UniProtKB/TrEMBL annotation:
Subunit details: Homodimer.
Domain Glycosyl transferase family: 224-395
Name of this protein: D-inositol-3-phosphate glycosyltransferase
Function noted in UniProt: Catalyzes the transfer of a N-acetyl-glucosamine moiety to 1D-myo-inositol 3-phosphate to produce 1D-myo-inositol 2-acetamido-2-deoxy-glucopyranoside 3-phosphate in the mycothiol biosynthesis pathway.
Domain Glycosyltransferase subfamily 4-like N-terminal residues, every copy: 34-209
Residues reported to bind UDP-N-acetyl-alpha-D-glucosamine: 27-28, 35, 241, 246, 307, 329, 337
EC numbers on record: 2.4.1.250
Pfam family name, one: Glyco_trans_4_4
Keywords: Glycosyltransferase, Magnesium, Metal-binding, Transferase
GO biological process: mycothiol biosynthetic process
Organism: Saccharomonospora azurea NA-128
Length: 431
């Protein structure tokens, strides 16, 4: 038997993906929908193409949602009633985990025995559900935390609300129960072991991907025209959920510093902020607008609602630089997507961003959140055409190292390994 046939044989036929607090059907870039939603839908589609069916369980948030929706061939989204048909905050969701778990178990009970071969839970709330389902179904649990409370709390924006202790406890339990823990970077692997006591042998680092068919370099002028921007403009962009952790305020302060240093720039500078309110930043668009006014740059800042499809591609292509000033970021898909469009990224040197951005090759990493440092880095890239052109080439090159196909292959390998370990039948490669 060849290695690839052996691999295929130990791959699951069907998996249950748990995504309690947010659905892969939602538009990312606002509320609870972000990189995790993109991760789940992109890898699910790729898994189904490789013969592993995926059923994603998410909480029903409206009575209009059908119980089951086909996201793509081989990928179902199951809406589980648990609590009111309306959005709940993450703080309220733990009270609905029992109802949600009951819905998941009931769905499985209606199928033939052994319907799901494996569970992959995303975020700690889903991990709690997966923990119980694992025991009931006798299948392995693979868990991805996406973010960790202890890491978030250590990098909190000034005045932001810390994650509660109940989340820390819940995360610790899931780390102890999961068969495999998937992380985005080696930094996160180390955090999981050091801060949560994870067994290093259970941790697998799998790089997230980017859709290189959708996000690719293309006409800058066309993208700018679509946004009503002039070809001569100097365009700085931010895309993502608007919340203190993402620090869009740092970009605004740096932009104000740039026009203070060079008042001439005011005629050409545009700052795009794409995304909607989220998490502890529910009042953020309003307070960001206020900040822009206080900084005297309200006329330079354009707020865009969460962008989908080609609109988001146009934002990335139109920008001279995409800024990712986050206080913490377990990876930063926006950084990768912008680079795939041939746009250099200036990012904070935190979390997974040093993996997502190759410092000096595809963008610039800034070791602080000081507006002066950010203004320096943004000016270095956006105002020096030769530097920008070199980084733009590097950006496409760097992004091409990532893909959802590669991510999915690594996840499927992790599933196969978890299955062999769980059932205690390390399949020998028969030659
Ligand atoms: N996004 C989007 N429209 C927007 C802003 C963001 O679709 O207007 C998407 C973006 O394409 C990316 C995701 O939201 O895939 C954000 O992921 P990231 O890892 O950058 O941040 P997270 O939301 O996971 O914290």
């Amino acid at each position: 038997m060849t290695i690839s046939r052996h691999r295929a044989a130990s791959r699951p036929r069907r998996i249950a993906v748990l995504s309690v607090h947010t659905s892969p059907l939602e538009q990312p870039g606002t509320k609870d929908a972000g990189g995790m939603n993109v991760y789940i839908s992109q890898t699910a589609v790729e898994m189904a193409r490789r013969g592993t069916s995926v059923e994603v369980f998410t909480r029903a948030t409206s009575s209009d949602q059908p119980p089951v929706v086909e996201l793509a061939p081989g990928v179902l989204v199951r809406h589980v009633p648990a609590g009111p048909f309306e959005p709940l905050t993450r703080g309220e969701l733990p009270s609905q985990l029992c109802a949600f778990t009951s819905g998941v178990l009931r769905t499985e009970a209606f199928q033939e025995p052994g319907y799901y071969d494996l569970i992959h839970s995303h975020y700690w709330l889903s991990g709690q559900v997966g923990w119980l389902a694992r025991e009931r179904w006798g299948v392995p649990l693979v868990h991805t935390a996406h973010t960790l409370a202890k890491v978030k709390n250590a990098a909190l924006a000034h005045g932001d609300t810390p994650e509660p202790r109940t989340r820390v406890i819940g995360e610790e339990q899931v780390v102890a129960e999961a068969d495999r823990l998937v992380v985005n970077t080696e930094v996160e692997a180390e955090q999981l072991v050091r801060l949560y006591g994870a067994d290093p042998d259970a941790v697998r680092t799998v790089s997230p991907g980017v859709d290189l068919d959708r996000f690719r370099p293309g006409g800058v002028e066309g993208a700018r025209a679509a946004l009503g921007l002039s070809p001569e403009a100097v365009v700085l962009a931010f895309a993502g959920r608007i919340q203190p952790l993402k620090a869009p305020d740092v970009l605004l302060k740096a932009a104000a510093t740039l026009v203070r240093r060079d008042p001439e720039l005011r005629r050409r500078l545009v700052v795009l902020v794409a995304g909607g309110a989220s998490g502890t930043g529910l009042d953020q668009p309003a307070s960001l607008r206020r900040l822009a006014g206080e900084l005297g740059i309200a006329d330079l800042v354009r707020f865009l609602p969460p962008q989908g499809g080609q609109d988001l591609v146009n934002v990335y292509r139109a920008a001279d630089v995409v800024a990712v000033p986050s206080h913490n970021e377990s990876f930063g898909l926006v950084a990768l997507e912008a680079q795939a469009c041939g746009t250099p990224v200036v990012a904070a040197r935190v979390g997974g961003l040093p993996v997502a951005v190759a410092d000096g090759e595809s963008g610039v990493l800034v070791p602080s959140h000081a507006p002066d440092d950010w203004a320096d880095a943004l000016a270095r890239v956006a105002l020096r055409p030769a530097v920008r052109a070199a980084l733009a080439r590097g950006a496409s090159r760097h992004a091409a190292r990532f893909s959802w196909q590669r991510t999915t292959e690594a996840l499927l390998d992790t599933y196969a390994e978890a299955t062999r370990a769980f059932h205690g039948t390390a399949l020998e490669v028969a030659v």
